[in-house]
Specification:
With 153 residues, this protein is α/β, with parallel strands linked by helices. The protein has five helices and four strands. A four-stranded parallel beta sheet has the order 1-2-3-4, covered by helices on one side. The longest helix has 20 residues. The radius of gyration is 16 Å and the shape is globular.
């Protein structure tokens, strides 16, 4: 792995729904593009390779950003993304992917094992599986896609 800088973005009130969803996700992405990226370029020795990693609602944000603004990052990792959120908006977004341009980006979706696929989490995990299936069936040439389930987790 090349030398890297990891940037974690905190928020003061602990409500990631505010940053990662609905209209505010556009504002959050704008902050990353217009303030964070220039700050990093000015103050650190960086190159042009950028990777977005998100968990849960952060994974939702990563998948939505990849679909709508793929050039923002070179690669995307979504762990246990909240596909269920906002009436399964991402399930609707990730349909008919054959002709969608992902701008030759990388995506990895990960999720925990089937032992977590119970009760109130069943819909969450099954929704991730549906997106995985859609991505695999699409055989989209503009996306280097990988899926990994961590069985013992």
């Amino acid at each position: 792995m090349p030398e890297s800088i990891i940037v974690g973005i905190t928020n003061k009130n602990g409500d990631r729904t505010k940053d990662f969803t609905h209209v505010n996700d556009v504002n959050f992405l704008n902050f990353i593009q217009t303030e964070l990226f220039p700050f990093m370029q000015k103050n650190y020795r960086v190159n042009d390779f950028r990777l977005l990693i998100g968990h849960s609602l952060g994974g939702y944000f990563a998948l939505k950003t990849l679909y709508n603004h793929p050039k923002t990052f070179n690669g995307y990792v979504a762990h246990d993304p909240s596909i269920w959120f906002n009436d399964k908006e991402l399930l609707n977004l990730y349909q008919n992917l054959e002709n969608h341009s992902f701008e030759n980006r990388f995506l990895m979706i990960t999720q925990v094992g089937e032992s977590q696929n119970t009760n109130h989490l069943r819909d969450h995990y099954q929704s991730i599986k549906k997106v995985d299936e859609r991505l695999k069936l699409s055989k989209n040439k503009s996306l280097n896609y990988h899926y990994k389930q961590y069985v013992g987790e």
